[in-house]
Amino acid sequence: MLLHRRFVVPALYPFLFLCMVLFAFMVPRQVDAQETDAQEVDQATQRPNVLFLISDDLNCRLGCYGDPHVKTPNIDRLAARGVRFENGYCQLPHCGPSRNSMLCGLYPDSTGILSNNLIFRQTIPNHVSLSQAFRLSGYFAARIGKLYHYNVPKSIGTDGHDDPASWEMQINPAGCDRLIEQPDIVSLKKGSFGATLSWYASPRSDDQHTDGKIAEEAAWVLERCAKRKDRPFFLAVGFYRPHTPYVAPAEYFEQYDLADMPLVDDVEEDRADVPEAALLSQKAEQDRMSDDQRRHAIQAYYASTTFMDAQVGKVLDALDANGLADNTIVVFTSDHGYHLGAKGLWQKRSLYEESARVPYIVAGPSIGEAGKVAQAPVGLVDLYPTLAEMCQVETPDNLHGQSLTPILDDVQNSGRGYTMSQVYRGPNRQTKKAFQGYSIRTKRYRLTLWEDGKQGTELYDYENDPLEKTNLAFHPDGQELPVGIQQTIDRLSVTLRAEIAKGIPEGGMPPVKDHRWPIMMVNP
């Protein structure tokens, strides 16, 4: 036995030595793992959150944009703590195309979406959307309400034309405006609400309406996010108002006197020097409206705007109450503007300021010029690269927008110096074919070419004509344009055509590949 012990025990020494070495390294490694976890939490909390607020069909008739009529105290207070872009524009003033362009960071010719009811997965299925990029970077990404296109009001309460890969959580409230009140809504066309001027002063409270429920859900999600210190969030909140039907609680209608509603009274004179292509979004039932109907429509739009603003305030209050404001970038914008009577147009799908221009506010902890106004022309297509840079999120290489961080640091920075918008026209009475109009907006000018000028050209000088009353490109009876005007048109045309070419892929605009789109979190 003794011999056996002398033989066996020494044989175990190498194994025991190895165990001792491993044990010696185990404790330090556990400490390192704990330190690494702590570092990861610190890194997550240092990366800013994003609260992305978007309204539907909202123009720049807001207090912070100098409008004397519309009451928007909550959007105004957001502007006071961020940078307000005076000249912000959508890339195509139609809900679906605009939202797909914005959330893809691409011009509409590259998304392949020029009309509603499509989503980019049907044309460019492998593209990484804005919120998807944040998800892939470790962010919690959630959507409440409308971000991609919805058929309003019929799709309220559903996913609409949404992209599941863009979100980790989707919430789709539906309120009394969708579920109860439709029979009471006044419409210029009986039974038509989404694309027709229609309105209703509801007897029900904010919290019973869809946008009120959206604000309540957003507050709940923010409370949940505040408890997670290890993950930053990208929360997108899409309000429906003031999209038609203009439904809001009656108390918001009461804030606007019908007699004070501003009517446009120079329609015929204002349209005398513009090409037919520019006015093809007009509707016959709107031309037949009485002054009383016009005042009611404007009152309802203003009421819906102020109601939506109140819901924005509730979300901002929740951000503050949960201690998140100091580390959250807040964006407020709209998918496009809205006319309300200028040039006889009432809604969207034009390339004038009322339709193409949008509210555009960015606030947050890293904003160097809080409370100031930037005059540089910018586009919704710029939001993707801007937010990604601010949050250290990797982006696709093919984005068309510019990062706005230099302008957020210094509002005097001119950025790219221009932005481009476009609109699609179906077959025309004269040409019997479809065509597009493209428009370039610089700080001073807007040049619009309809079918590269074949269907008309428009030039407006905002230093001397902020309301676009005089088309400088108009030359009746074959008269030549003044040399300076022609030189401006030629110079801007070169930039515009180059930007158009940048937006069209090598193989041309991508076609619709499938009316069913794949759900893909990452590229195959």
Automatic annotation (TrEMBL):
CDD domains reported in the protein's UniProt record: iduronate-2-sulfatase
Coiled coil (UniProt feature): none
Secretion signal span: none
SUPFAM superfamilies assigned: Alkaline phosphatase-like
Annotated Gene3D superfamilies: Alkaline Phosphatase, subunit A (3.40.720.10)
Highest rank taxon of the organism: Bacteria
InterPro entries: Alkaline_phosphatase_core_sf, IDS, Sulfatase_N
KW Metal-binding (keyword) present: yes
Required cofactor(s): Ca(2+)
Keyword terms, alphabetized: Calcium, Hydrolase, Metal-binding, Signal
Entry keyword Cell membrane: no
Domain Sulfatase N-terminal: 48-390
Family: Belongs to the sulfatase family.
Listed name of the protein: Iduronate 2-sulfatase
Lineage: Bacteria, Pseudomonadati, Planctomycetota, Planctomycetia, Pirellulales
